[in-house]
Amino acid sequence: DFHLHEPKKTTMLTKFESKSARVKGLAFHPVRPWICASLHNGVIQLWDYRVGTVIDRFEEHDGPVRGVDFHLHEPLIVTGGDDYKIKVWDYKLRRCLFTLLGHLDYIRTVQFHPNATQFPWILSASDDQTLRLWDFHKRSCLSVLTGHNHYVMCAAFHPSEDLIVSASLDQTVRVWDTTGLRKKHLGGPGMDGGYPGMMDANGNRGQSPAAATALNVQAELFGTNDVVVKYVLEGHDRGVNWAAFHPTLPLLASAADDRQVKLWRMSETKAWEVDTLRGHANNVSCCLFHPKQELVVSNSEDRSIRVWDVSKRVGVQTFRREGDRFWILAAHRSQNLLAAGHDSGMIVFKLERERPASASGPGDKLYYVRGRELFCHDYARATGGSSGVDVPIASLRRVGQQAQTDGIGSGPRFLSYNMHNPTEGNVLVCSEVDGGCYELITFSLTKAGGSVTDGKRGACLGPGVFLGRNRFAVLDRHKREIVVKNLNNETTKRVQAPVPNVDCLFDGGASGRIILRSDDRAVLFEVQSRRVIGELTAPKIKNIVWSPDGSKVALLCKYGVVIADRQLEQLCSISDTVRIKSGAWDISPTGGTNSNLFVYTTLHHVKYCLPTGDTGTIRTLDNPIYATRVVKDQLFCLDREARSRVISIDTTEARFKLALANKKYGQVMHMVRHSRLCGRAIVAYLQSKGFPEVALHFVRDPQTRFRLALACGNIEAAMESAFSLEQQQGA
Asked: Distance between CA atoms of 348 and 305, rounded to whole angstroms?
């Protein structure tokens, strides 16, 4: 055991926050962006955390509802409350289907079996000192697990084995073996509950109904041997509030009123305490293993959430709230999302960003980081189906206080490539370790695997930017000055920022220029002459993308895109309801879209934006991606695992609007005749833009044709439509 050095305080990446009565239970939907919260006032809320709205609320429980869970495949929610009732709800029908009665005190947790198609089971834990297993198809109690001698605060199925873990205020954690019940359920010999006429293993006929009733009474009173205790874990000196299995390893974590989180290991025959994580200053209410990383997350009545590295057994992050005690945690089974419930609502959050650090290089190259490696992805070497070839450039060393752990937030956030240097490759890798730092990596562009120089490091705030062939700029963390350095990492000058509150530098699109982010403004600044070239207002700027010809820049904001010219004069601004994730300019050699069509991605869509302000949706996405380049009908991107991918997109609509805006009527008419453009939206669009004659080509309906024909003065077409209308009415 050891006491922690205080882990760093970090701002959490909050994705969604709700205000409500105290949240006691939380469950993520397995696929939809929903989270169910059960409240201390008896209400159950179903939230869409992506949009931030309540989809539904269920109110039938009397008193606090502490347990909630989603079924993996069916539209079902199970809840358990202080009214001793377990309720199963159908969220499509929006009502409670049935209530399971049997517990004699508050119900703390409820859970569907992880393999609920094969085992229609619900597990519940209660202050009546028992756990119960229920068959929700038969709506009956399968087994009562007795053994704890105080409130059972939580119970959970193992994700893949026949095990259950429970935690109780009797200061123990118990692990139960459900093999017997599984065999009975799947109908082993003599385990069928014996219907009349069926034989059991000894050749005896089935029991009488009276005998069956007697057995049920016996089960109620003394429990059954279908579920047996495998281990009793003793080590906490106060009541245990929570226990959780590791998703894959034979590990357990438990959280207790002794302010400790303990880790336990299990073998076939025994279980033992491995470690104690100390740091919470009050009762620890909940803990879980992170589904993707070797981390334990715990939260407590001390108003903090703590993150611990399991292998190093140290605290790596602490998040605090001002006045709210935490009660419950939940983790999404497939995404990197966590949720925590507290006295006045809940938060859905991530531990770290999932955007891979990347930057376009000269020609057909993309530089990016995966894990601890810097790669160059060569698009020119793409073969059937692949997006190109990865060439490893350098390994990145860990930096900062957290060099010993793969702590969270230590990965590279930003990457800049020196486009001003044709003779060698220079890359700046910036991360947020210790408040922000950079590393300059130099390598040969001709010899793959040639010499690499690294180790040139320093402190900075946000990304670094190359100003010319042999110099780059970073932002001083404390003074907020612009510091210019040469490639030997020597400071050559310091320049005062022209505006206050600068917190980020971006590429300025030409040598010697940078864009400064200050509050909700972007300022284009020339470092040498210290003059401001242009500025515009754009809220919450996250990133900027210059067009390949350098004539335009897209500023990606949290909820919108602003497109400006090279002097930062705004061309258009569009807003979206969902967060913008990435964007790339079209670089097709032909077709007039190069540097005019900007494709951007949100959480679940690929959309486009033209400098005219026209926008549209191109396709939906299953998972977020980060666009890196667009060529014709292909979108090249990185996924969250930093793997390069290519997906097909149809940009016909965008090309059509662009051709129209650029008055390329030949191209417009060609597209009218040869592509799958149709629909009222295009007709309305053409008419609103003052092109009724083009719209005429799309329309078959005589009434609309008549209107459009008059609008563009095409008398023959108008007469023709009038005749067909007359015939229709005559008929």
From this structure: 12
In the DSSP assignment, the letter for residue 404 is: G
Q: What are phi and psi of 90, to 5 degrees?
A: -105, 115
Residues 393-409: tens digit of each pLDDT = 888 876 555 444 555 66
What is the pTM assigned to this prediction? Answer: 0.76
Q: Are strands 140-146 and 152-157 parallel, antiparallel or unpaired?
A: unpaired
Q: How confident is the model at residue 222 (pLDDT cuts 50, 70, 90)?
A: low
Distance from C-alpha of 658 to C-alpha of 675, rounded to nearest angstrom:
15
Crossing angle of helices 680-688 and 652-661, rounded to 10°: 20
Positions of E strands within 383-540: 389-395, 412-417, 424-431, 437-444, 452-459, 465-468, 471-475, 482-486, 491-495, 502-507, 513-518, 521-526, 531-537
pLDDT tens across 608-645, in order?
Answer: 999 999 899 999 998 889 999 999 889 999 998 889 99
State residue 676's pLDDT score.
64
Q: 3-class DSSP state for residue 227?
A: coil
List % helix, strand, coil for the chain (3-state, nearest 5).
10, 45, 40
Asked if the model's pLDDT at residue 512 lies above 90, the reply is yes
Burial class, 589, CB count within 10 angstroms (exposed 0-12 / middle 13-18 / buried 19+): exposed
Please tell me the distance from the alpha carbon of residue 419 to that of residue 472, in angstroms, as a whole number. Answer: 11
Q: Which two tokens stand for residue 499?
A: 């505006």
